[in-house]
Amino acid sequence: MTTTDHRRASADDPRVLLDEQAGIFEPVPPYPPRTEREAEFYSLGDGELLINIGPHHPATHGVMRVVMKLNGEQIVDLDPVLGYLHRGVEKLCENADLHQTIAYLDPLEYVSSLFCEWPAVMAYEKLLDVEVPRRAEYIRVLTGELNRVSSHLLAMGFHALDLGGLTPILYSFIERDEIVEMLASITGQRMLFNYFRIGGVNGDLNHEFMSRLGDWMSRATEQVEANVGLLNENEIFVRRNRGIGVMDPETAIAMCWTGPNLRASGIPFDIRRAHPYSVYPELDFDIPTRQEGDSLARYLLRIDEVKQSLRIIDQCLHQMPDGPVMAKLPRLLRPRPGRAFAAVEGPRGEYAIYAVSDGTDQPFRFRIHDPSFLHLQSFGRLVPGKLIADWMTVNASLDPIMGGVDK
Amino acid sequence: MDRAIRQRLEERFGEVLAGPVRQRHDETEIRIAPGDVPDVLRALHDEPTFDFRLLADLAGVDTGDSMQVVYHLWSATSPDWLRVIAVGLDRDSPRVPTIVPLWPGAEWLEREAYDMFGIVFEGNRDLRRIFMPPDYQSFPLRKDFYLPDDAARSPGAGVRPMEATHAPRNAPAGSIRRGGT
Predict the structure, then answer these.
(1) Minimal Cα–Cα distance from A255 to chain B, Å?
(2) Under an 8 A CB cutoff, do A374 and B134 touch?
(3) For position A20, what pLDDT does the model report?
(4) Which end of chain A is least crowded, N or C, by CB within 10 Å?
C-alpha cells in the first residue's frame, strides 16, 4: 500500500492500522527553524541530545509534547509543543449565542469546570448590567469552593502518582467522588456541570445536595488531614519535592503567574481579595502563602487552600439568604455594544474572559485566559540542570490542565 | 469606577491617548497607538503612582476593519482593571512592538495572538505558531475566516466546504462581521 492509498482509505479501514507505523515523533522538526529561539534550541552542543516526550505520556497531564535537550541525564533546555487538544473554543464561542458559550467553556479545565463558566457569566452580566440575586451569588461561591476542593485533592493525588506513589490518588478520589456526586445532584452532571447562567444559577439547592454536604462537612477536615498524612510524612515524597523547581517572586510575577503557584513563591495575590467579586468581601478567610517557591511549597499550599475553602463553605451555609436564584431576563439576550473583562480566582490561578459585544446575540470577540498556559511557559526556567524525573515533579506541582492550555 | 486613576492617566499620558479615558463597572480603558505600547506600558509598570505589575491578559481583536491588541493590567494602586488597547493596526500587516522585556511571560501570549490573528510582535524572538500546525496558512480568529457551517454570514448563504473557509476576494461588503470598536 502506497502513501496515496492511505489518503484514500477511510479511518476505520483495518489495513491502515496494520501498515501505518505507530506514531513516532521525531524530536527534530522536518522544516527549517522559524525563529531565533527555535534555531538555538534545535542546534546541539557537544554531548547534547534531543529526546521527545509525549504527546501521550502519563506524566504530561493531558496531551502535551515536550522536546528535551539533555546533557547526560541533565536537562539543558526544553521546548513544549502545544496544540494537540486545540478545539478553537474562542472561535466556536464567537459563533454561538451567549447561553451556548457557557457549555463550550466547561471542557476547558475539566476538573474545575465551574471556574471556567464563572468569568464568562460575570463578563456577560457586566455587558448586560444585570444584578445577580444574592442567593445565587452564595450558591456560586459554595459550589465553586466545593469544586476547588475537589480539584486540589485531585492535584495532590496526581502529584504523588507522578512520583510513583499509587495509593494517595485512591484516597483523594474518595473525597472527590463524594463532591462530584454532590454537585451532580444539583447540576445533573458529574464533571461538566454547565450550571451557572447569565443572571444566576440553573437550580436551587435541593435536599439531596444539602444532606450529602452536611454529612461530608462533618468529616471533611479529618479526612483531608488523614489523606495528606500519607504524603507529608513520606520521606521519599518530601525529598523529591524539596528544592526542586524553585521560582523566585520577582520572576513569578514577570512570568504572569497567578494562583497557588504564585502564592507558593511568597506573593499574597488572590483575586478574591485583590479584586473582589461576588460575595467574597463578606466572607472571612485567609490567603495562605509560602516563601520557598519549590514543588513542595506548591503542594503544601494547596492543602492550606483546601482548609480555607472548607471555612468558606461553612460560612456560606450559615449566611445563605433566601430568595430567587435567577435574575429576570429575556431568553434572547442582546447586550449593547461594549467590552467587559471579568476574572475569578480558580484552583490554578486567574481565569478571565474578555468579551466584546457588537449588539447581536453572539459575542463579537471572546477571549479566554487560562492560567495553566502561563505556568507551563516557565518550564524552561524551572528545570534546567535537573533530571527528567524532576521535570515530572515540577509538572505535577504546577498542575497544568491541557484542556485549558490548548483551548 | 475609580475616578482617581482616570485623572492620573489623563495627566500622565494626555497627549499619547487616542480618545478619552473610558470607565464602566470596574474597568478603566485607554487607547493608544501601537507605536506607543512599550513606552506607555513601561511607565504603567515602573512608576510608583501606577505600579501595574501584573499582566492579567493579552488578547488580539479583529474588528473587521482593523486589528487591536488588548492588554489587561492589575495594580494595588487602583481597584479597577486597566485595559490598554493598541488601536488601528493595519489589517493587511498588523505590527506592534513586543512587551516581552517587561513581562517575559507575555512571550506565549504574543505567540498565541500571532497564531490566531497574524499580529507580528516586533522583537519577540520566538514568534512561531503555538496551537496550529507549523504548515498551517490561515489565521483562524480573523473575521474573514468562516467556520464551515457558519452559513448565516457566508456570502453564499449555504454550507461552505472545509477547503473554502475564507471570504472570497470579491465578497460583498457586509459579509464580514464588523463591530467591537
Answers:
(1) 4
(2) no
(3) 54
(4) N
**Distance in angstroms (rounded) separating the CA atoms of residues A218 and A210:** 12
Q: Which of A175, A171, A162, A206 is nearest to A188 (CA)?
A: A206
Nearest to A365 among B61, B128, B150 (CB): B61
Query: Cα distance from B78 to chain A (closest Cα, Å)?
Result: 9
Q: What is the mean pLDDT of chain B?
A: 84
**A377 reaches B (C-beta below 8 A):** yes
Q: Say whether A91 and B61 touch across the interface (CB within 8 A).
A: no
A250: left (phi over 0), alpha (psi -120 to 50) or beta: alpha
Element (H, E) at A343: strand A338-345
CA distance A309 to chain B (A): 24
Do residue B57 and residue A367 have CB atoms under 8 angstroms apart?
yes
User: Measured between CA atoms, how close is B39 to chain A, in angstroms?
Assistant: 17
Report the pLDDT value the prediction gives residue A24, as an integer from 0 to 100.
67
- Strand A363-369 and strand B27-32: the pairing is unpaired
Residue at A298: amino acid letter = R
- Cβ pair A365, A355 in contact under 8 A: yes
> Measured between alpha carbons, how far apart are the two ends of chain B, in Å?
21
- Using CB atoms within 10 A of its CB, is residue A387 exposed (0-12), middle (13-18) or buried (19+)? middle
pLDDT at B140: 86
| Amino acid found at A332 | L
> Which residues does chain A have within 8 Å of residue B56's beta carbon, measured at their own beta carbons?
341, 343, 350, 352, 369
Residue A95: its chain B contacts at CB < 8 A? 147, 150
A58 burial via Cβ count (<10 Å: 0-12, 13-18, 19+): exposed
Least confident range from A192-206, B51-65, B128-142: namely: B128-142
Q: Kindly list the averaged pLDDT for each block of 10 residues, start to end, along chain A of length 407.
A: 46 56 70 85 86 76 85 90 89 88 90 92 93 93 93 89 85 89 90 90 91 90 84 86 90 92 92 91 92 91 92 92 90 89 93 92 91 90 88 89 88
Q: Are B85 and B69 in contact (CB under 8 A)?
A: yes
Q: Distance between alpha carbon A2 and the CA centroid of its chain, in Å?
A: 43
State whether A31 and B134 contact (CB < 8 Å).
yes
pTM of the model: 0.87
Distance from the Cα of B127 to chain A's closest Cα (Å) equals 6
Question: How far apart are the C-alpha atoms of A181 and B29, rounded to whole Å?
Answer: 43
Closest chain B CA to residue A268: B76
Using alpha carbons, select from A404, A3, A337, A390 the residue that is nearest to residue A162: A390
Interface check B177 vs A, CB under 8 A: yes
Give me the residue from A91, A373, A378 closest to B140, CB to CB. Answer: A91
Q: Residue A352's pLDDT is what?
A: 94
Mean pLDDT of all residues in B154-170: 50
Cell of A326: 435567577
